[in-house]
Amino acid sequence: MSVDHAIASELSVELIHLVKKIEARRLHAKRQADVEASSYPVLFDLHRGPARVSALAEHVHSDVSTVSRQVTSLVTQGLVAKVSDPDDGRAQRVALTSDGDALIARLQDLRVAWIQGLLSDWTNDEAITFANQLHRLSTALGGELDRSRGQSVDLDYPTAPTTRKDAS
């Protein structure tokens, strides 16, 4: 059974507000090192281990040219290095350097402290429930992205909530 229209409508509006607030927060956040915030997903993905640029692009849902540019910048900054691919000596993978690992650790600590501050009046059970539901939504969205790869998707985003008086 699917969620009814009114609830889906309110959720879509709340998600838009959430994304906009996260973007605004990111714009005002103190930069760590001299790294573009748009490169953080690449760094965090490399925390799992070395990868080819094409695999990174797929993992972070970006195009190869963008990720390649980000990798070049990160190499210049000494946060990642290109290493030989053990499966194909002609190819290269990208791996975090010790400076990259240190930056990821610092970013993770800052993000954890930020989330703890945001959820200071939540119980652990509430946070776990939210995390599980957020993971479920993220997994569904990831599946949709995989199915629609290379296709245009037409979304009509509502601009105001339909069931709440205060949408701030």
From TrEMBL:
CDD domains according to UniProt: HTH_ARSR
GO terms (BP aspect): response to stress
Pfam families noted in UniProt: MarR
Molecular function, one GO term: DNA-binding transcription factor activity
Keyword Transcription regulation recorded: yes
Keyword field: DNA-binding, Transcription, Transcription regulation
Region spans: Disordered: 148-168
Stretches of the chain forming a coiled coil according to its record: none
Domain HTH marR-type residues, every copy: 8-139
UniProt KW Lipoprotein keyword: no
Signal peptide as annotated in the record: none
Protein name: MarR family transcriptional regulator
Organism of this sequence: Flexivirga caeni
